[in-house]
Design brief:
Elements lengths: L25 E2 L7 E6 L2 E2 L2 E3 L5 H18 L5 E3 L11 E5 L4 H10 L13 E10 L2 E9 L2 H15 L18 E4 L4 E2 L6 E6 L5 H10 L14 H13 L4 E3 L7 H4 L3 H8 L2 E2 L13 H6 L6 H19 L6 E2 L16 H18 L10 E5 L2 H7 L9 E5 L21 E6 L17 H13 L5 E7 L5 H12 L9 H13 L3 H20 L17 H22 L5 H33 L5 H24 L44 E5 L24 E5 L7 E7 L5 E7 L4 E4 L2 E4 L5 E8 L8 E12 L6 E11 L9 E2 L4 E5 L5 E3 L5 E6 L6 E6 L16 E8 L9 E7 L14 E5 L5 E3 L20 H4 L2 E7 L5 E9 L6 E7 L14 E2 L1
Parallel strand pairs: 4-5, 4-6, 6-8, 11-12, 11-18, 12-13, 14-15, 15-16, 16-17, 17-18, 20-27, 28-33
Antiparallel strand pairs: 1-9, 2-3, 2-9, 7-8, 7-10, 19-21, 21-25, 22-24, 22-26, 23-25, 26-27, 28-40, 29-39, 30-33, 31-32, 33-38, 34-37, 34-39, 35-36, 35-38
Helix pairs in contact: 1-3, 5-7, 9-10, 12-13, 14-15, 15-16, 15-17, 16-17, 17-18
The structure holds 2-acetamido-2-deoxy-beta-D-glucopyranose (NAG).
2-acetamido-2-deoxy-beta-D-glucopyranose binds next to strand 5.
Pfam family, one: GH115_C
Protein name: Gylcosyl hydrolase 115 C-terminal domain-containing protein
Keywords: Hydrolase, Signal
């Protein structure tokens, strides 16, 4: 078994306050003298600030007072004061070191030790201070090292008071308490792990934009662009970002221009304390191409129009100069496409040089290297870097993912010494190849953790920015991303569930056990949606005939829906809207889409089998299609239409990468309900075939007519333990049937039934009653289905049945071949062998089926790799009874997460597979790609991001039936293995691979 590391779990889910990953310093009961009252006996402690503090601190302090009122119903008095006027009382005092003269006076007066926070970016401390000022006996003091340090100190308390960062954005109710206390020892936090932690509102049409137009404008947007994203919208967003302890924003840019849509946007960001940037394709703080289209002179082509483009950028720089900004350098072609083909590194180098000159000019007298700047190595720009282009040392290198959550590059050893450092641009939402994904949450937190923890390991911690699309469907993921960047030491592979559980407690006031259920629901929701994004699903994604795959997928979704529904129904009405938005809608809406597509697949297949139940599935599709719209409508009508339009995103009927202009129902077929199929009343369809009997069918045998009767086979270690044969109606005439066999060891359940238009199908399971009653090897039987219908001749169809009893060698422990494969979840090892302190370690809830296993720590072994056969290994004991056509050959398919060669070209991802003492075979499984490109296996509808897996196939020769050991050897870190399948000749096509084999 995999040994999970025991990490300290920091999440204190105290009965007193529920907050996520924070030190706890809030209580709701009057307790000992170690607590300082915020509100007690109906009275609120007054709050004092200094008028020379940051306006953003003043504003957040007002939120803080409102939050106290939200919890207690009592609003504290809040006012400015000075050290000389404040002469009595026991107040709460808030302020920023070096900015608030009040705080500085307290520090001087009391020698309050602020060494832990002083000079630390965004740090804060809060505690009881005795005699802070003459006449003032004690005060609870919240001190920030800088503007946002103070703001985060306030919001940290608010969250513990019970005000969710999402109180407005997801209608999370605040639990009322009449008494509110903070502990004298208070709460504090040092500098966050990541300096700039941000989100990118992107591709915000149709949902967010249409919603914002209705809620924040009177129908007319910006005079320049028509954009609805004005300061009323942004005030809500800035507050959310700060409550989530983020500090950075790339604003909506699809049809908007932040700086001009509303002249208050940019100053308001600064007032709040949010650092503004612009996306990878919009240099120098201008919304490009929108602003260039409006104000630019000439073409957006630096080779012919540099002077005018410079003027355009100077304008953006001058506009941003008064405010806190993180500038994006470089240039892409208008509309987020590569610069023209003739352009080259030299040109881009020139562009960056010219941009630096613009800084020198506009920030006259300021050292250019102190102006925060980044260079986004997105798509082809990464290629320019790989080809040798460099920017000045102080510029942050912003590495990007592949738009699908797989980071393309992390800083190598030599790159980690750059003073500017590095960051990561990540995606929860995307418009582009192979298909958009922008409808609903599809990102596993475990995957975010897995990728972003490499960023922590490799010091890409200057900037993290995540594309959140319309923001709304990705609330939890956004919070996790920002929380992990805020304090990476809190979170590890084993406590992500506790993040979600604490989140559920905070949002829905749930008991710990119900919160754990929510964590499971959220984990499964994102796991199922991450297997293949809904936009990429088709009616035949999951096998309709093999491994009962489609049936299991439907059953999984239905179980999830039921779990969510029963929780939803149990909630008080004030919690339901939040639960609906954050959990229930995505679960039920995703289940609906999956069920609809599978029902369409079954419908299409059954039509070809002349089964009258075809029509039931057609009806199901029609009904699920309207349910899809009903769920959208339910969201839109929630809370008197507060979220109208927010689920406008189309998601059904994609024909190419771009979204369809309307949802379209998957194609369905119908049979004439009153006409009988040519061969008679009964249709027989055994498991594992697309064909039906009697009569002709193209899938029966090669020529499609005069084919033999069907047959099924079952071996003693099939994980299913039985086979089924469907008995279906071929028309409107009711009939009864019996199923009998000529073998006493064969059991048929049920062995008879009645079929009619209202009950047109019966599944009959065939199993072996007692394997010891059949001899070793193959035993055959014949199952006879006989149908009796009024005024029709009796109909008979036979199905051959072969039972194969395989004997496991005595004493063997491990996985046993069944159905011609050995399928193993990677975490289910027989042995897990560490080398040099590096161990394959499980990432729970990761990937498509169970979990992922990856070498840990990633920079262990001094960051060096291993040669095949020398490193840490996973060992799996298995027994096989067959090889492919008796040849002695088997193939091993290792299901590996679709990571990229992010450790640099000289360290491509690799691992090795070995069986027994056959030579280990090394796989460099991510093909190399031209600089700035992705490998071809990445793309397309059958590429590894669409499939969310890389299948690495390794053939082995010269294997006898018997007990063996399969080993997976570490070569490089950051390889995540999910599952291993050994084909001994029986593998069938499916999406997720065969289910796990029997283990003895
Ligand atoms: C404190 O002073 C600042 C600066 O003059 C002002 O903006 C703010 O509204 C004042 N706060 C209160 C609570 O009066």
């Amino acid at each position: 078994m995999i040994i999970r590391r025991t990490f300290a779990v920091y999440v204190a889910v105290a009965a007193s306050a529920v907050a996520i990953g924070q030190d706890s310093c809030v209580a709701f009961q009057s307790s000992s003298s170690s607590a300082f009252p915020v509100v007690t006996r109906g009275k609120a402690t007054p709050i004092f600030l200094s008028k020379d503090d940051w306006p953003g601190v003043q504003r957040a302090a007002n939120d803080f007072a409102l939050d106290i009122q939200r919890v207690t119903g009592v609003k504290p008095a809040i006012s400015n004061t000075t050290a000389s006027t404040l002469k009595s009382g026991t107040p709460i005092i808030i302020g920023t070191l070096g900015k608030s003269s009040l705080i500085d006076a307290i520090v001087n007066n009391t020698k309050l030790d602020v060494t832990g926070v002083q000079g630390q970016w965004e740090a804060f401390t809060a505690k009881l201070v005795n005699n802070p000022l003459p006449g003032v006996s004690r005060a609870y003091v919240i001190v920030g090292a800088d503007k946002r340090g103070t703001i985060f100190g306030l919001y940290d308390h608010s969250e513990q008071f019970g005000v969710s960062p999402w109180y407005w954005w997801a209608d999370v109710p605040t639990t009322r308490h009449s008494e509110l206390f903070v502990s004298n020892s208070g709460c504090s936090h040092g500098s966050p792990t990541v300096k700039y932690r941000g989100i990118f509102i992107n591709d915000e049409q149709p949902a967010l934009q249409s919603w914002a137009a209705e809620k924040f404008t009177n129908g007319t947007g910006s005079p320049w662009t028509g954009s609805p994203f004005n300061n009323l919208f942004y005030a809500k967003l800035f507050e959310l970002i700060l409550r989530l302890k983020g500090n950075y924003l790339w604003p909506a840019m699809w049809g908007s221009a932040f700086g001009i849509d509303d002249p208050f946007n940019q100053p308001l960001a600064d007032l709040f304390g949010v650092v503004m940037g612009t996306s990878h394709q919009e240099p120098m703080m201008r919304s490009t191409p929108n602003e260039f289209n409006l104000f630019g002179v000439g073409k957006y082509d630096y080779t012919t129009n540099a002077e005018n483009i410079q003027k355009y950028w100077i304008n953006g720089t001058e506009r941003a100069k008064p405010y806190e900004s993180l500038y994006t350098l470089g240039m892409r072609g208008a509309g987020d496409i590569p610069l023209s083909e003739e352009t080259n590194i030299q040109l881009l180098q020139q562009i960056v040089d010219d941009q630096r000159k613009i800084f020198a000019e506009v920030y006259n007298g300021t050292d250019v290297t102190t102006i925060p700047q980044l260079w986004a190595l997105y798509k082809e720009v990464e290629g320019y870097y790989d080809d040798g282009m460099r920017v000045p040392e102080d510029v942050i290198l912003l590495w990007a993912d592949d738009n699908w959550g797989n980071v393309r590059r992390f800083p190598t050893d030599s790159e980690r010494t750059r003073s500017g450092g590095a960051g990561v641009y990540y995606h929860f939402d995307y418009v582009g190849d192979p298909r958009n994904y922008k409808w609903i949450t599809t990102t596993q937190l475990s995957k975010v953790y897995e990728q972003m923890s490499i960023a922590v390991d490799r010091n890409a911690t200057k900037v993290w920015i995540v594309n959140v699309g319309d923001l709304k469907p990705y609330e939890r993921e956004t919070e996790f991303f920002l929380s992990y960047g805020w304090n990476a030491t809190r979170w590890n592979a084993n406590n992500i569930d506790s993040f979600v559980a604490s989140w559920a407690q905070r949002e829905f006031s749930l008991s710990p056990s119900k919160a754990a259920t929510v964590a499971q629901i959220a984990g499964n929701l994102t796991r199922f949606n991450a297997r293949r994004k809904p936009e990429l699903l088709t009616p035949t994604t999951y096998s309709l005939t093999d491994y009962r795959e489609a049936d299991n997928i439907q059953a999984e979704w239905n179980r999830l829906s039921q779990a969510s529904t029963s929780l939803y129904n149990s909630l008080p009405s004030n919690v339901k809207p939040a639960f609906f938005q954050l959990i229930h809608h995505p679960v039920v809406a995703s289940a609906t889409v999956n069920n609809m597509l599978i029902a369409a697949g079954i419908n299409n297949l059954r039509a070809s089998q002349a089964r009258i139940s075809t029509n039931n599935f057609a009806d199901q599709v029609v009904s699920l299609f309207s349910q899809d719209f009903d769920l959208e409508t339910q969201y839109h009508t929630l809370l008197d239409g507060k979220w109208n339009h927010i689920m406008d995103q189309t998601h059904l009927g994609y024909g190419y990468w771009q979204q369809p202009m309307a949802n379209t129902m998957p194609a369905i077929n119908r049979l004439p309900p009153k006409k009988q199929a040519l061969p008679g009343v009964m249709r027989i369809v055994p498991e594992g075939t697309k064909a039906a009997w009697p009569g002709d069918n193209v899938n029966q045998c090669a020529q499609g007519y005069n084919c033999p009767p069907p047959s099924v086979a079952l071996d003693s270690h099939s994980p299913f333990g039985n086979r089924f044969i469907d008995v279906g109606a071929g028309g409107p005439v009711p009939f009864t049937f019996t199923a009998t066999s000529n073998a006493s060891w064969l059991q048929l359940t049920p062995s008879s039934g009645s079929i009619s238009p209202s009950s047109p199908e019966q599944r009959v399971f065939a199993s072996v009653k007692d394997w010891s009653a059949v001899g070793a090897g193959n035993s055959s039987a014949v199952i006879t289905f006989k149908a009796v219908a009024k005024n029709q001749p009796t109909m008979t169809v036979t199905v051959g049945f072969t039972a194969t009893r395989n004997n496991v060698p005595s004493g063997f422990k491990g996985f046993v071949e069944g159905d011609g494969v050995v399928s193993i979840e990677a975490a289910h090892t027989s042995r897990n062998i560490s080398v040099s302190g590096v161990t394959w370690t499980e990432i729970p809830n990761y990937g498509r089926t169970l979990s992922g296993v990856t070498p840990w720590p990633r920079l262990g072994n001094n960051g060096a790799n291993f040669t095949a056969g020398s490193g840490p290994s996973l060992e799996y004991d298995f027994v096989n009874f067959n090889t492919i056509q008796g040849s002695g050959n088997v193939t091993v398919t290792t299901f590996v997460s679709p990571s990229l060669n992010a450790n640099g070209a000289d360290r491509p991802l690799a691992f090795a597979v070995q069986i027994d003492s056959l030579p280990p075979q090394t796989s460099y499984f991510i093909p190399s790609a031209a600089p700035g490109q992705l490998p071809s296996a990445w793309s397309g509808l059958d590429g590894f991001v669409a499939n969310s897996i890389v299948s690495v196939v390794t053939p082995f020769q010269g294997l006898q039936p018997g007990a063996h050991t399969l080993k997976i050897w570490m070569i490089e870190p950051a390889v995540v293995i999910q599952k291993v399948v050994i084909n001994t000749g029986g593998i069938r096509a499916s999406y997720l691979g065969p289910p796990e084999s029997v283990r003895v």
